[in-house]
Predict the 3D structure of the following.
Amino acid sequence: MRESQKLTCINCPMGCELEVSFTDSGEIIVSGYKCLKGLDYAKKEVMNPTRTITSSVPVVDGEMAMVSIRTDRDVPKKLIRDCMMLLKDMKVNAPISAGDIIIENICGTGVNFIATRSVRKK
Ligand code: SF4
Protein backbone atom coordinates (compact mmCIF):
# COMPACT_ATOMS: atom_id res chain seq x y z
CA MET A 1 0.00 0.00 0.00
CA ARG A 2 1.38 3.43 -1.01
CA GLU A 3 1.17 6.56 1.14
CA SER A 4 -2.33 7.98 1.50
CA GLN A 5 -3.50 11.43 0.45
CA LYS A 6 -6.06 13.54 2.32
CA LEU A 7 -8.60 15.64 0.43
CA THR A 8 -11.66 17.70 1.27
CA CYS A 9 -14.63 17.07 -0.97
CA ILE A 10 -15.77 20.36 -2.55
CA ASN A 11 -19.05 19.13 -3.99
CA CYS A 12 -21.27 20.31 -1.14
CA PRO A 13 -21.08 22.28 2.13
CA MET A 14 -20.58 19.08 4.15
CA GLY A 15 -16.90 19.19 3.12
CA CYS A 16 -16.24 15.52 3.88
CA GLU A 17 -12.62 14.69 4.67
CA LEU A 18 -11.54 12.00 2.23
CA GLU A 19 -8.56 9.71 2.38
CA VAL A 20 -7.20 8.19 -0.81
CA SER A 21 -4.66 5.40 -1.01
CA PHE A 22 -3.50 2.91 -3.61
CA THR A 23 -3.03 -0.83 -3.40
CA ASP A 24 0.19 -2.31 -4.79
CA SER A 25 -1.74 -3.23 -7.92
CA GLY A 26 -2.75 0.44 -8.42
CA GLU A 27 -6.34 0.15 -7.25
CA ILE A 28 -7.65 3.35 -5.64
CA ILE A 29 -9.11 3.02 -2.14
CA VAL A 30 -11.21 5.95 -0.92
CA SER A 31 -12.70 6.43 2.54
CA GLY A 32 -14.59 9.23 4.28
CA TYR A 33 -17.18 10.02 1.59
CA LYS A 34 -20.87 10.17 2.43
CA CYS A 35 -22.13 9.88 -1.14
CA LEU A 36 -20.92 8.76 -4.56
CA LYS A 37 -20.09 12.32 -5.62
CA GLY A 38 -17.33 12.26 -3.04
CA LEU A 39 -16.00 8.95 -4.32
CA ASP A 40 -15.98 10.23 -7.91
CA TYR A 41 -14.36 13.50 -6.83
CA ALA A 42 -11.55 11.72 -4.97
CA LYS A 43 -10.76 9.39 -7.89
CA LYS A 44 -10.76 12.26 -10.38
CA GLU A 45 -8.70 14.46 -8.09
CA VAL A 46 -5.86 11.97 -7.84
CA MET A 47 -5.99 10.78 -11.46
CA ASN A 48 -6.87 13.90 -13.47
CA PRO A 49 -7.84 16.95 -11.39
CA THR A 50 -9.98 19.49 -13.24
CA ARG A 51 -11.74 22.74 -12.39
CA THR A 52 -14.24 25.19 -13.80
CA ILE A 53 -12.59 28.62 -14.09
CA THR A 54 -14.58 31.75 -13.26
CA SER A 55 -13.41 35.30 -13.82
CA SER A 56 -14.52 38.62 -15.33
CA VAL A 57 -13.28 40.80 -18.17
CA PRO A 58 -13.67 44.51 -18.98
CA VAL A 59 -16.45 45.56 -21.37
CA VAL A 60 -16.01 48.34 -23.95
CA ASP A 61 -19.08 50.61 -24.45
CA GLY A 62 -21.19 48.54 -22.09
CA GLU A 63 -23.76 49.52 -19.46
CA MET A 64 -21.53 47.63 -17.06
CA ALA A 65 -17.76 47.91 -16.83
CA MET A 66 -17.16 44.15 -16.45
CA VAL A 67 -18.81 40.93 -17.52
CA SER A 68 -18.52 37.69 -15.56
CA ILE A 69 -17.31 34.65 -17.45
CA ARG A 70 -16.65 30.97 -16.81
CA THR A 71 -15.45 27.93 -18.68
CA ASP A 72 -18.27 25.88 -20.20
CA ARG A 73 -16.62 22.69 -18.91
CA ASP A 74 -13.83 21.80 -16.52
CA VAL A 75 -10.21 22.21 -17.64
CA PRO A 76 -7.20 20.29 -16.34
CA LYS A 77 -6.00 21.93 -13.13
CA LYS A 78 -2.45 22.16 -14.48
CA LEU A 79 -3.68 24.47 -17.30
CA ILE A 80 -5.55 26.97 -15.10
CA ARG A 81 -2.68 29.47 -15.05
CA ASP A 82 -2.25 29.33 -18.84
CA CYS A 83 -6.01 29.76 -19.31
CA MET A 84 -6.06 32.76 -16.97
CA MET A 85 -3.15 34.35 -18.86
CA LEU A 86 -5.38 34.51 -21.95
CA LEU A 87 -7.59 36.96 -20.03
CA LYS A 88 -4.75 39.27 -19.06
CA ASP A 89 -5.34 41.99 -21.69
CA MET A 90 -8.76 40.81 -22.81
CA LYS A 91 -11.60 43.28 -23.46
CA VAL A 92 -14.96 42.53 -25.02
CA ASN A 93 -17.28 44.86 -26.90
CA ALA A 94 -20.89 45.34 -25.82
CA PRO A 95 -23.51 44.08 -26.42
CA ILE A 96 -22.89 40.67 -24.87
CA SER A 97 -25.49 37.97 -24.28
CA ALA A 98 -25.27 35.38 -21.54
CA GLY A 99 -23.77 32.27 -23.12
CA ASP A 100 -21.76 34.13 -25.77
CA ILE A 101 -18.35 32.58 -26.35
CA ILE A 102 -15.69 35.02 -25.16
CA ILE A 103 -12.67 32.84 -26.06
CA GLU A 104 -13.00 29.60 -27.99
CA ASN A 105 -10.96 26.42 -27.45
CA ILE A 106 -8.83 27.80 -24.63
CA CYS A 107 -5.32 26.35 -24.56
CA GLY A 108 -6.39 23.72 -27.08
CA THR A 109 -8.71 22.04 -24.57
CA GLY A 110 -11.88 22.34 -26.63
CA VAL A 111 -13.34 24.29 -23.69
CA ASN A 112 -14.62 27.85 -24.13
CA PHE A 113 -14.85 30.88 -21.89
CA ILE A 114 -18.48 32.02 -22.01
CA ALA A 115 -20.27 35.07 -20.62
CA THR A 116 -22.50 34.29 -17.65
CA ARG A 117 -24.60 37.45 -17.98
CA SER A 118 -25.73 39.91 -20.61
CA VAL A 119 -24.37 43.44 -20.93
CA ARG A 120 -26.16 45.96 -23.13
CA LYS A 121 -24.46 48.65 -25.16
CA LYS A 122 -24.43 52.15 -23.57
S1 SF4 B 1 -18.92 13.22 -0.16
FE1 SF4 B 1 -21.02 13.79 -0.67
S2 SF4 B 1 -21.82 14.59 1.26
FE2 SF4 B 1 -19.60 14.61 1.46
S3 SF4 B 1 -18.96 16.68 0.79
FE3 SF4 B 1 -18.85 15.31 -0.98
S4 SF4 B 1 -20.80 15.61 -2.00
FE4 SF4 B 1 -21.04 16.35 0.10
